[in-house]
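From the methods appendix. Each design record in this collection lists the tokenized structure first, followed by the designed amino acid sequence. Records were kept in a plain field format so they could be parsed without special tools. The example shown here is representative of the layout used throughout.

RECORD:
FOLD TOKENS (558 positions):
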């Protein structure tokens, strides 16, 4: 290395200092030659800043996104140019749709090679504009602290989301004077007194109020305050798609989730509410059943929409009252209210809860493994703070319906519907919380999209329990295929490895479950194992959904 003038540092070292100045102490990534100077900067802080080497950039991005979900602070991801960034873009898309704070740092071609279609060259400001809140390129090493400080603030302010910064290779090797940073603090919207007064007036006039919680921006305190507010005022609470940990599912005021395959009685209850208070959720396609559960643009219900992103208020649904606030800033104000409940509110909550209890009762499915019973056992066995992760696939419909989340920060699942998410998310969760039980649920198709990260789990002693539901097909697509084109199967069948042997080859424990009675001892073994554990669960292909079978879909279509 060339001698560095006194009081100057490499741009790559300045980058790492700017990250640590803003509180970052961990990053997930796949090393690349385009950011060697930044890796060199990490060498000097490896005792206080962990770099988790992943086996695929998509997994690195998913781990960073999961970190952002868990902590509320930006997950940091390093990837190299071209193929590295394109692989990792799935994590940006998930972070964007899930409103998760995240910063992706991308190696870039040297500045003297730009616009020549150099090796692996991409203009990220154009390429990533649809999946980030802000994408920029740092061309001057003396401005690194400025860009990084802005990245943290953009990622966490308003509606949180991902930021991407391209790092030209020669910029990282430039010499620059040390730069000063002030640690970021997110800008959070607060409700005004008129907002709160108007909301109170609407509540006191309502006969059938309903609260929906969701989105990001929550913490343990705001969730606890939401629960106190609901029970104090006899208000029923539902949650948006894959936001089931925003309210204790065992709480008597919890009445179920408004996700894919929601309880029809719950959907009807929402449609017959005269006041719908949506706190944090965007009211996206999955929560609204393709925008059909609520009328567009003006719902039949009086809608109060509370969201941290001002641009989301009135985007699809026009609210009678729009409040730009975060869950953390509005909950203390709501908790201070003294509401005069209308007659029948308490009975309404009890009836809605009874409907949820009935919906949550396990149903039988074809085959020797009863999936609902597995999740019921997990709910009864796992501690309240266990973290359960999943990607996309029909296997998750049993998880969402029959497992109960009891505390905040225990559900990691992509509202973007990305396959391959659960495995890396669980590994990140276990690295962040090594003392907590972490379960990754995946179908065989979903699992194989990130199977290589078993090596990452083994390397970092991330003793995750991986549940692989194996029905030898892409279940969700097969379900749609059978519904639309019965018995014309094409492209959805899978050939799988021996998952037990595969796990063992990575140094993990492998267990196979072929009937329901084998799951309980398998889970107990996994919880006590001092290594990652994979439990392969054989699923009858007929068990395509909690209330549907493959043959039934074919018959119904005919």
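DESIGN:
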């Amino acid at each position: 290395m060339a001698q560095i003038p006194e009081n100057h540092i490499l741009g790559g070292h300045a980058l790492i200092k700017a990250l640590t100045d803003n509180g970052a102490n961990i990053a997930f990534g796949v090393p690349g030659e385009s950011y060697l100077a930044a890796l060199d900067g990490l060498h000097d802080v490896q005792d206080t800043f962990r770099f988790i080497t992943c086996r695929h950039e998509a997994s690195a991005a998913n781990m960073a996104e999961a970190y952002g979900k868990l902590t509320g602070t930006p997950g940091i991801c390093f990837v190299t140019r071209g193929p590295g960034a394109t692989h990792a873009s799935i994590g940006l898309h998930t972070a964007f749709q899930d409103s998760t704070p995240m910063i992706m740092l991308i190696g870039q071609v040297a500045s003297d090679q730009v616009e020549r279609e150099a090796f692996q060259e991409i203009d990220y400001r154009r390429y990533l504009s649809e999946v980030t809140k802000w994408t920029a390129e740092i061309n001057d090493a003396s401005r690194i602290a400025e860009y990084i400080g802005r990245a943290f603030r953009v990622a966490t302010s308003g509606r949180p989301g991902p930021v991407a910064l391209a790092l030209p290779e020669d910029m990282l090797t430039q010499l620059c004077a040390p730069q000063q940073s002030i640690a970021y603090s997110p800008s959070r919207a607060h409700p005004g007194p008129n907002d709160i007064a108007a909301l109170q007036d609407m509540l006191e006039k309502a006969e059938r109020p309903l609260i929906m919680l969701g989105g990001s921006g929550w913490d343990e305190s705001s969730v606890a305050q939401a629960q106190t507010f609901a029970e104090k005022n006899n208000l029923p609470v539902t949650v948006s798609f894959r936001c089931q940990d925003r309210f204790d599912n065992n709480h008597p005021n919890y009445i179920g989730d408004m996700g894919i395959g929601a309880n029809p009685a719950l959907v009807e209850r929402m449609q017959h509410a005269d006041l719908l208070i949506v706190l944090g959720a965007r009211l996206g396609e999955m929560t609204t059943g393709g925008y059909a559960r609520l009328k567009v643009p003006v719902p039949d219900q009086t809608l109060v929409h509370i969201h941290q992103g001002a641009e989301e208020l009135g985007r699809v649904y026009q609210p009678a009252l729009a409040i730009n606030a975060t869950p953390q800033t509005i909950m203390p104000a709501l908790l201070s209210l003294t509401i005069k409940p209308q007659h029948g509110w308490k009975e309404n909550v009890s009836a809605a809860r009874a409907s949820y209890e009935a919906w949550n009762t396990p149903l039988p499915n074809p085959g020797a493994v009863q999936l609902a019973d597995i999740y019921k056992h997990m709910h009864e066995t796992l501690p309240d703070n266990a973290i359960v992760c999943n990607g996309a696939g029909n296997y998750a419909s049993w998880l969402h319906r029959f497992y109960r989340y009891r505390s905040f920060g225990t559900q990691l699942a992509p509202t973007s519907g990305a396959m391959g998410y659960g495995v890396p998310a669980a590994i990140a969760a276990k690295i962040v919380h090594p003392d907590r039980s972490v379960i990754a649920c995946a179908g065989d198709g979903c699992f194989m999209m990130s199977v290589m990260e078993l090596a990452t789990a083994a390397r970092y002693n991330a003793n995750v329990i991986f549940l692989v539901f194996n029905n030898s097909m892409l279940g969700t697509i097969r379900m749609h295929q059978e519904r639309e084109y019965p018995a014309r199967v094409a492209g959805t069948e899978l050939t799988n490895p021996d998952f037990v042997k595969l796990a063992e080859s990575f140094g993990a424990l492998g267990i196979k479950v072929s009937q329901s009675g084998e799951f309980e001892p398998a889970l107990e073994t996994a919880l006590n194992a001092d290594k990652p554990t994979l439990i392969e669960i054989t699923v009858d292909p007929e068990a395509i959904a909690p209330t549907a079978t493959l043959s039934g879909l074919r018959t119904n279509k005919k």
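APPENDIX NOTE: The CA atoms of residues 197 and 337 lie 9 Å apart.
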